[in-house]
Amino acid sequence: MPVLHDEVPDDDDFDAGRKRGEFDHITPDDFVRASGSGAGSGSGRGGTPIPPGWLDRQTIDDLRSKMPIPYIVVLPVHTDEYGRISHVGTLLTASDEDGTVSRTLIAGRVVVHETIREAIVRNIARDLGDVTLPHLPASLQPFTVAEFFPTPGVSPYFDARQHAIALCYMVDMVGECQPKDETLDVEWVRPEVALAPEFLAQLPNGFDRILVQGLNAAGV
Asked: Rounded to an integer, what distance in angstroms lies between the CA atom of residue 179 and that of residue 3?
């Protein structure tokens, strides 16, 4: 399980309703998968243009070796009638190597021709479904910026594949969360439980620190 989502497209995770100019006609069947034509070629199967931002595996790996990659991280929360955080959500995922289950937060790349707000909504929908009804913050000021490095010890945040710069946001989910893609389940706990050392120890690679910073920023 990658620390940060790869964003190599699957047939069911393209936001087809969003306007993309010349790419409005693109359907999931037109996607170029990692085994197809390279993103640098400018066309997919049958000469169809590749939607901007979607990269094949070889291209994204090449970019990761040369430059930092922009990401967003979302800390899902539920709030009460006074706007106070009542529950914090963490995602349960399984390792591709040994099936070990661990906790993480919503994290995904910002793609070309996509605003930060669109990236937040798309990555939430990718992990928690389309009916979460996220209440996005009025300001795009992140509560922290997490800089992931491929070298352990450079920062509290680690991703073996890349140097990634992640803008971190707390988002209130007012709808129903239906885990999908690589997410096995989403578990909601009270803030005091989320801040317990034994709980934070289940969030590797710096996501524990992001959770603490988010709750501290909200006055918890």
From this structure: 17
Q: Contact, 60 vs 38, CB < 8 A? A: no
Residue 137 lies in a domain: yes
Per the domain annotation, does 101 fall within a domain? yes
Both structure tokens of 198? 């034994």
| Rounded Cα distance, 196 and 192, in Å | 6
Top mean-pLDDT range of 13-17, 20-24, 135-139, 188-192: 188-192
- pLDDT band per the 50, 70, 90 thresholds, residue 33: very low
Domain assignment present for residue 155? The answer is: yes
Strands 85-94 and 106-109: unpaired
**How far, rounded to the nearest angstrom, does the alpha carbon of residue 135 sit from its chain's CA centroid?**
16
- Number of domains comprising the chain: 1
Backbone angles phi, psi at 180, to 5 degrees: -150, -175
CATH code, domain with 78? 3.90.79.10
pLDDT per residue as tens digits for the range 167-199: 999 999 999 998 887 788 999 999 999 999 999
What Rg do the C-alpha atoms of the chain give, in angstroms? 18
Cα separation of 220 and 216, whole Å?
5
The type of residue at 35 is S
Nearest to 133, CA basis, from 100, 171, 85, 97: 171
Q: Containing domain of residue 198, as a range?
A: 60-218
Per the domain annotation, does 74 fall within a domain? yes
